[in-house]
Amino acid sequence: MKRNLSAGALALTIGVFGAGFAQAAEIRLAPEDGTDKLIEAFIMVEEGDTILLGPGRWDLADGLVLDADGVTVRGAGAEETVLSFKGQTGSGEGLLVTSDDVVLEDFAVEDTKGDGIKSKGSDVITFRNLRVEWTGGPDEKNGAYGVYPVSSRNVLIEGVTVRGASDAGIYVGQSQDIVVRNSLAEFNVAGIEIENCYRADVYGNMARHNTGGILIFDLPNLPQQGGHDIRVFDNDSVDNDTPNFAPEGNIVGGVPMGTGIMVMANRNVHIFGNRLANNGTVHVIVAAYPNDYDDDNYMFVPRGVYIHGNTYGEGGTAPDNEMGELIAERTGTPVPDIVWDGVTRIPEWLTWVAAENRLYIDEAEDTTFANAKMISHMLLPWSVSPDRDISNYAGSLPEPAPVELPQDAEG
Fold first, then answer.
1. Which of 13, 48, 72, 332 could cross-link to 26 by cystine, CB 3.0-4.6 Å?
2. 274 with 382, same domain?
3. Same domain, residue pair 71 and 216
């Protein structure tokens, strides 16, 4: 028999999967049971168990940790079941998951000192119908990330809402095989960020009122780099008009307010069927990593980017910060819908223009574009103008296969 965690306070519903098989339990909790019982449940939960959180609010001073495999944590809804960390004494996560085959769904995490919900080293993890929010609005003292799987595999994020993250609302880092869909990211620095990841599909999401809507980055000096095979499609990245409130030193601190989609130093990225409007700096920018680094294995330029079939509304009329002003200086205002900084790895520029590494664009006739030719401009500032002829970038790339996840019935 499964042990009773606290007689009278917890109701355990035992389900037996068959003779000779392990038993699994439903651990039912309500706010009136108290936070100690909640913490105890996360500590003592066993493989295959389900923790059911009733409606109401828990006020927690410490973060929760889940390290048992095969566990589901399910609330009564993202507006009904709230784990509040407003009184959190440490600076860690609200919920940290370090196990496999985990489902987190139908609850909210509010006002963590650090990240909202983080998984580290997890294989097969689902974040579904969650809300992570800093209820005081944008503030550099907010936690960095809302939903934050890192070094994980087979990641599904769907129906998630994140507001107020001081770095990225939905952030997936150094992970493999990822789906982010049908989610809302607003009032964050970055709405959705895919960083140093292999194989990701980002679709059906709304990124609005962030500093930048959707970022596809690859950074140096990380255990996994060389991000590749990313599809960003059928998303809305609109009205990204929140001033950048990242703490000083964060890489996203350089993202201009009003960036729709940004690709930096990643490979084989396909951006298609998205709707972009009212992004004050630029709708789509493709750029090299801008900072100095010491990493012989890092490739700082993007390679193999295909942009096609997107819809562009008004934008580019209010370039922000040093990057935005530099873009506007080179391309004029309003900034074109699509901007490539034109930076290549000079000693290997002939390799860069190999077919699989080029930038390709296939958009409607009225779409505006500029290759800012930043390297050439720095070398010969008096003689080099941006290339605005979008027809020079005609062509296509083979699309990566859709990401298939073992836990995804829709995939």
1. 13
2. yes
3. no
